[in-house]
Amino acid sequence: MNDTTQPLRFFYHPHSRAVITRWMLEECGARYEPVRLEYGTSMKSADYLAVNPMGKVPALTHGDIVVTELAATLAYLADIFPAKQLAPAVDSPQRGNYHRWMFFLAGPVEAVMTAKSQGHLEQQTPEQAMSAGYGRHDDVVQTLRQAVAGKRYLCGDQFTAADVLMASYLRWGTMMKLLPALPEFSAYGQPLHERPASLRAIQLNEADLAAQPA
Q: Quick one: which of 102, 114, 112 has its CA closest to 133?
């Protein structure tokens, strides 16, 4: 799996969460082929549906290996570029935190922000909160606040893929008013977005947004 000589293709649209995968690619110093897809056309083409039947981005192909789902693309890249140390070692006491926050962001955080954006939380009953994996919106917000308060990184002194995902979700969530603009969120996230790899990803994304689709 660690054979980085295999061709790496990155399927994306600049106006999507794929920019987070691009940040991770830049952190890894990866050589990759970017493949821009368009909503409703090439993203739903037979060729791309053979890669991701959901017809969504981001996705990666690494030789014959296919990886879809945002958090999975970050975790996979951390694994195939071990020299970059973007995931705690398997025997590290921080490995649990790494998995905890990667899955929390991909699960409850993603779900509650989608529910809020679509107005499903306005009349949420206690019974609905009990059955929902995210509980209540306030539960998720307080968990995120406690996760990052006073922290430079989520996993001790090591910057990891979990920080890429956390900083990105906090920025996107507050920008879209799906999360409150708490000082703990900005104090944690802003320095991470100033990393050279993040700035390169943003520049590449902005250039793509300005370009006409192929």
A: 112
